[in-house]
UniProtKB/TrEMBL annotation:
<dbReference type="InterPro" id="IPR003583">
    <property type="entry name" value="Hlx-hairpin-Hlx_DNA-bd_motif"/>
</dbReference>
<dbReference type="InterPro" id="IPR019554">
    <property type="entry name" value="Soluble_ligand-bd"/>
</dbReference>
<keyword id="KW-0472">Membrane</keyword>
<dbReference type="GO" id="GO:0015628">
    <property type="term" value="P:protein secretion by the type II secretion system"/>
</dbReference>
<dbReference type="GO" id="GO:0006281">
    <property type="term" value="P:DNA repair"/>
</dbReference>
<feature type="domain" description="Helix-hairpin-helix DNA-binding motif class 1">
    <location>
        <begin position="144"/>
        <end position="163"/>
    </location>
</feature>
<keyword id="KW-1133">Transmembrane helix</keyword>
<feature type="domain" description="Helix-hairpin-helix DNA-binding motif class 1">
    <location>
        <begin position="174"/>
        <end position="193"/>
    </location>
</feature>
<dbReference type="Pfam" id="PF10531">
    <property type="entry name" value="SLBB"/>
</dbReference>
<dbReference type="Pfam" id="PF12836">
    <property type="entry name" value="HHH_3"/>
</dbReference>
<dbReference type="GO" id="GO:0015627">
    <property type="term" value="C:type II protein secretion system complex"/>
</dbReference>
<dbReference type="InterPro" id="IPR051675">
    <property type="entry name" value="Endo/Exo/Phosphatase_dom_1"/>
</dbReference>
<feature type="transmembrane region" description="Helical">
    <location>
        <begin position="12"/>
        <end position="30"/>
    </location>
</feature>
<protein>
    <submittedName>
        <fullName>Unannotated protein</fullName>
    </submittedName>
</protein>
<dbReference type="InterPro" id="IPR010994">
    <property type="entry name" value="RuvA_2-like"/>
</dbReference>
<keyword id="KW-0812">Transmembrane</keyword>
<dbReference type="GO" id="GO:0003677">
    <property type="term" value="F:DNA binding"/>
</dbReference>
Amino acid sequence: MLDIDINPEQKRGLIIVFALTIGLAGFFFLNSRPTAEPVLIQDTNIDQTQNDLIDIPTKLIVNVAGRVKNPGVYQLPQGSRVVDAIEAAGMQLKGVDISDINLARLLVDGEQVLVGGSKLTSKKSTPKKITSDNPLDINRATITQLDTLPGIGPVTAQRIIDYRTKVGRISSIDELKKISGLGGSKFEEIKALLRVL
């Protein structure tokens, strides 16, 4: 074992050096650890980003068209319903029936709300009776229109719709003979009332 002779002045110097070394080591140790502050900043940024994402779809853009006082494009809050869009456009014009519109339906961004359009179209097309001078287009006919043909009830009308759906498009009136219940005299009775466009 070495016998080192250290005078009090040297002892004091060694203690100071030792204390400084411990202090510096503690300082670097504490500063090298990640602090909670950057994590808080990051969390704040994530929350802000989430808020920004939430803010994007909180507005709906809808087009209100047809028979309203002020047709046009309107910006409405998320969760708005069809009635809100019609109100934004100043409501329907006097005498326009909106009973066929589901006013409680939630709106979707980018959609069009048409007020009074479908009823106007149906009023123009339904008064004309189906005759040989005004034949029914078999590829566009609705089940209700087919049901008005002589000898065709709702069951046969549905068979015609099903057949049309299956083949995609009926290319000739004679194709209807392939449908159960449309052969013979029944086909002869309705063929003059039908056309293919």
